[in-house]
Amino acid sequence: MKYEMMVVLTEEYNNTELKIWAFNFGKILKKLNASDISVISRGKRDLNYLIKNRNRGNFIQVNFVILPDYIKQLSKDLNLDSNVLRFLIFNIDR
């Protein structure tokens, strides 16, 4: 199934660090047999409310195709990353 995910990372990342995070996240997706992976940086933005005592974040959009069974593991991996403030995964197949 096809998914789109928005990830909010801490604002401390510079462009190089964002590319490294995206590359490492792509490797995680590959381990879960994902395909058609694309990562788009949406830039730093102010948050409308504090998330983990932060008022700014780096927004990253990730599109990929993966079996639904792996979404739970993907969510678990993102929850373990201390630099991820929030994420949301959408099924865009429907």
TrEMBL record:
Alphabetical list of InterPro entries matching this protein: Ribosomal_bS6, Ribosomal_bS6_sf, Ribosomal_S6_plastid/chlpt, Transl_elong_EF1B/ribsomal_bS6
Keyword Transmembrane helix recorded: no
One Pfam family hit: Ribosomal_S6
UniProt entry keywords in alphabetical sequence: Chloroplast, Plastid, Ribonucleoprotein, Ribosomal protein, RNA-binding, rRNA-binding
Any GO MF annotation of the entry: small ribosomal subunit rRNA binding
One GO-annotated biological process of the protein: translation
UniProt-annotated location(s): Plastid, Chloroplast
SUPFAM superfamilies for the chain: Ribosomal protein S6
Gene3D superfamilies xref list: 3.30.70.60
One GO cellular component, as annotated: ribosome
Keyword Chloroplast on entry: yes
Domain of life where this protein originates: Eukaryota
Primary localization: plastid
Family, as annotated: Belongs to the bacterial ribosomal protein bS6 family.
Role played: Binds together with bS18 to 16S ribosomal RNA.
Annotated protein name in UniProt: Small ribosomal subunit protein bS6c
Native organism: Toxarium undulatum
